[in-house]
# Entry
Amino acid sequence: MSKTIFITGATSGFGAATARRFAQGGWQIIASGRRKERLDALAEELSAHTAVHTMTLDVQDAEAVADAVAQLPAAVAEIDILVNNAGLALGLEASQEANLDDWNQMIDTNIKGLLYVTRAVLPGMVQRRRGHVVNIGSIAGNWPYPGGNCYGATKAFVQQFSRNLRTDLAGKGVRVTNIEPGLAETEFSAVRFKGDQDKADQLYEGAHPLTPEDISEIVFWTTQLPAHVNINAVEVMPTSQSWSALTVSRDS
# Structure
């Protein structure tokens, strides 16, 4: 019997790379995202390797999420792995200058969307006494940086929710992993900078950042270990990135 992985935010970046990695291994793919044309293209690409079920879905819509999971075809209804990848960052302004709409969208996607999908999928995993929830966090949830205010806070939520989820699932046979990438070259920065690709490119220039394929390999590794092994968290940076010195402000 083929196993099934459900990936949110599968239209680009980590999500698309993860779909490709698992398709190579013969896994059935449930790919969700907001951009139907990209989902269709991904399904066409991967259909040579495996069965692909797509869902045009905005994870911010709790009712739509619950309905989509409830209406999955029987062939893919038993989800073995959930990858909560859908998320975004918007803006790098200081908190006193930040756009409240940006903050709300990050909260609605990175926190609420992750909650809605997890809550819809988890009962089946618990009932079957097997499954794995992989949350895509960020080093921003561990370490602050200027302008990271709300985004970092949403990823700190993901970290703590992952820990509490592990506690709730004790003895249920369901694993939970929080993967926390550092600098990675995806559409992430272009979205953060509201489509300013030149600004996004400057961030990555000469930095040898992580790639989507790097993260997909980590997702694959953590989920293919024996069922009695749970990788709680993986914090990963490119070799070029490390922690900054602490800031000290002095009187001028």
